[in-house]
Amino acid sequence: MTEQEGGEGLAAFAALFGLDAPAQDAGAEEGGKRGLFRRLKENLTKPRQAISPQLAGVYQSKLVSEDTWEELEEALITADCGVPATMDLVEALREEAGQGRITSGPGLARALTDEIGNRLASEPPRIALGDEPTVILVVGVNGSGKTTTIGKLAHQLALLGQKVVIGAGDTFRAAAVEQLQVWAERSGADIVRQSPGADPGAVAFDAVVAGTARGADVVIIDTAGRLQTQHNLMEELRKVHGVTGKAMDGAPHHVLLVIDGTTGQNGLSQAKLFSEAVPVSGLVLTKLDGVARGGIVLAIHRELGIPVTMMGVGEGVDDLQPFDAKGFAEAIFSPDSGSGG
Amino acid sequence: MFDALSDKLQGAFSGLRGRGKLTEADIDKAMRAIRLSLLEADVSLPVVKQLTTAIKERATGDEVMSSITPDQQVVKIVNEELTRLMGGANVSLAMAPNPPTVILMAGLQGSGKTTCTAKLARHLLNEGRAPMMVACDVHRPAAMDQLAVLGEQIGVPVHLEKGSTDPVAIAKDGIAAAKRAGRDVVIVDTAGRLTIDEEMMAELVAIRDTVKPTSVVLVVDAMTGQTAVDVATAFQDAVQFDGVVLSKLDGDARGGAALSVRSVTGKPILFVGTGEKVDALEPFHPDRMASRILGMGDVLGLIEKAQQTVDVDDAKRMEERLRGGNLTLDDFLEQLRQVRKMGPLGQVMGMIPGFSKAAKMKDVDVDERRIDRIEAIISSMTMPERSRPDIINGSRRRRIATGSGTTVQEVNQLLAQFKQMQKLMKRMGKGGMPSLPMGMG
Asked: Topology of domain B5-85, per CATH?
């Protein structure tokens, strides 16, 4: 499969993990490939949720005037990009326009999606699998969608023939372990769990040890949701990370921060403070339902350079996908995504 | 992150003092600062526009133009406008004249509905009511288990039907069960839904039409960004909610969503969720929220935080000892730990107005490490040394320094500072308490 097709279907996950794409999937791939972005675009084109009227105005304008820039600025703000990232983007595009490369609304639209796509794609995030289990630690604030993300990820890995062990490290929230258990059963993954209130570090340690012993390809460790300002809980997270490293040198190999797509500027604080506690290597942007446009990843990328690894656009098990910067930019900001509304 | 609006306005008005009158350009500069500040606080753009128009109108009036401190005047106006928009004093939850009162919970996935359901139940229980919770989330795996566990924790019965996929039927049975059991409030927890999911919205409407709730409560995550307006509108169109619970306000989110939701739907915010524990639910205070959105520090929040984390008995005991003028190094250590329990120093200080500007937060981290060392030094002392620091001679100092991994100079410094503090305490005698957490006890 080619690179620009990345971001769709199981093949995209295969690419993310450096695995061979499943051959028999060629036919189904066609459906899955369109699936994600079609769904996202469909969501966006529903009348009430149509992309901000400002952006539709931008795309229709024949000339690029001062009003156009103001409309663009407002559209980006409305997508939660935040003021500094918005200013950056507008400034970059203004420069291009100054050099005569952008002269019309549609031209500006293309330049915008290109610019966003290029920015977010600057570091293609990849989770390489080796001989030893690859350990992924999943962190985030309450309700961002960690457990669901893990469930879906385990499912995709299982489809790719990978053996997955899940560590049920959220020992705090009532029934979090049960929720994960249901997901593990659906995808045939092993789950390592302890009783409620158990030490999450111990669960993480056990999961890595079990993963190694059982010859797992991937060990995914769940953690309890915590607000980034809760000092003690962030210390606990630091400890979970450290203990994981004691179970296996170099583990966890990846730390994924899950961010709710409806999050506003607080997402920046989340990324900053979680990164201070543990080395966040990638973002998972969830619940992009068309109303939520997830522009906060631009703000985070601008400030901290953390790449987006995956995105979730719906509730189905296939709605979690490796992140594709260009596809994201087009689905969220392109003229045909919502100007009809 | 805490760029208080007042700092920004001071910047916008700088060079103005002594010049006298404000010009149109000055006001525009100030309006831009206000606009950016509100956007950074996640207030939705249409609401920001509406607000800045109202503020500009007032700001061009005489009270500002002729003021010697225009920045403060403008901050005052902004604060007033925000408070007004959020609806003045706090509103309480309506109860049905004929029990049971039925409360229907709604919200996006992950907004905190199930947790808020339990918090609300516990709140009502404390008010002397007999609540029951009904678990209608048949979609998220183990959501029913979560509510069951929470119910057990707080001692509130939960109606659930394991294996059922019909939330409308569960809701109906739940109300009937509550009536039979003589419960006077029924809180119906529902599945989280995406706003664009019409099927799920239809399900929520079906539940509402069946249980005919006294109130529909929308749970909104305080960290929500610009979409707060769309979310509120979607739920308003579908189920006409009556009030809002703003969840996860214990973080550092400025919470502009509160303003957006209120402004677009006119529905009051009833409660705010302020922590992990089931009792962390508080009435909503518009004035405090206004200060928070403006990033002007939250003194009341700080006081409450201190009250939450400081053990009242500990504080009392210490206060008594202090009144006797006997401050020991042990007390000092305990104090340090109490303050640190409130969170990182930088964050605690960020809640103090003016500090966000004065102390650039990065420098505070350094102090944090120094406090680590102080803790280590005191921890390396014996009990008699801690209560009678006078006995700490040269050889003891060397031992303490080695034990704590510090230097003799650092030990000396600490002892000298402590001695000064002791003197100060004695002089204060029966006067007020100088340090923060004790004063809060």
From this structure: Four Helix Bundle (Hemerythrin (Met), subunit A) (1.20.120)
How far apart are alpha carbons B25 and B32 in whole angstroms? 11
Which token pair is B13?
A: 């008005």
Q: Which CATH number fits domain B101-296: 3.40.50.720, 3.40.605.10, 3.40.190.80, 3.40.50.300?
A: 3.40.50.300
Query: Under DSSP, is residue B184 helix (H, G, I), strand (E, B) or coil?
Result: coil
Subunit contact A141:B248, Cβ cutoff 8 A: yes
**φ, ψ (nearest 5 deg) of residue A46:** -60, 135
Is the complex ipTM more than 0.90?
A: no
The residue among A53, A97, A98 whose CA lies nearest residue A79 is: A53
CA angle B206, B212, B240 (to 5 degrees): 75
User: Is the CB of residue B131 less than 8 Å from the CB of residue B156?
Assistant: yes
| Joined tokens for residue B258 | 């509160």
- A267 contacts in chain B (CB < 8 Å): 223, 225
CA end-to-end span of chain B: 30
pLDDT tens digits in sequence order for chain B, 441 residues long: 345 566 666 666 665 555 556 677 778 888 888 888 889 889 999 999 999 999 888 888 766 766 666 777 787 888 888 888 887 666 788 999 999 999 999 999 999 999 999 999 999 999 999 999 999 999 888 899 999 999 999 999 999 999 899 999 999 999 999 999 999 999 999 999 877 778 889 999 999 999 999 999 999 999 999 999 989 999 999 999 999 999 998 888 888 999 999 999 999 999 999 888 888 898 898 888 888 887 765 555 555 566 566 666 666 676 676 666 677 888 888 777 777 766 666 556 555 554 444 444 444 444 667 778 888 999 999 989 988 888 999 999 999 999 999 999 999 988 888 888 777 777 665 444 444 333 332
Q: Which helix (H) or strand (E) holds B132?
A: strand B131-135
Q: Which residues of A touch B109 (CB under 8 A)?
A: 143, 145, 287, 315
Residue in A with minimal Cα distance to B42: A264
With an 8 Å Cβ cutoff, is B154 touching chain A?
Answer: no
Q: What are the structural domains, with CATH classification, of chain A?
A: 47-120 (1.20.120.140), 134-322 (3.40.50.300)
Superfamily of chain region B304-440 = Signal recognition particle, SRP54 subunit, M-domain (1.10.260.30)
Predicted TM-score (pTM) of this structure: 0.78
**Beta carbons of B252 and A231 less than 8 Å apart:** no
Q: Does A214 touch chain B (CB under 8 A)?
A: no
Is the CB of B143 inside 8 Å of chain A's CB atoms?
yes
Sequence length of chain B is 441
- CB of B225 within 8 Å of any CB in chain A? yes
Q: Is A116 touching B (CB cutoff 8 A)?
A: no
Please name the member of A49, A182, A265 whose beta carbon is closest to the beta carbon of B142: A182
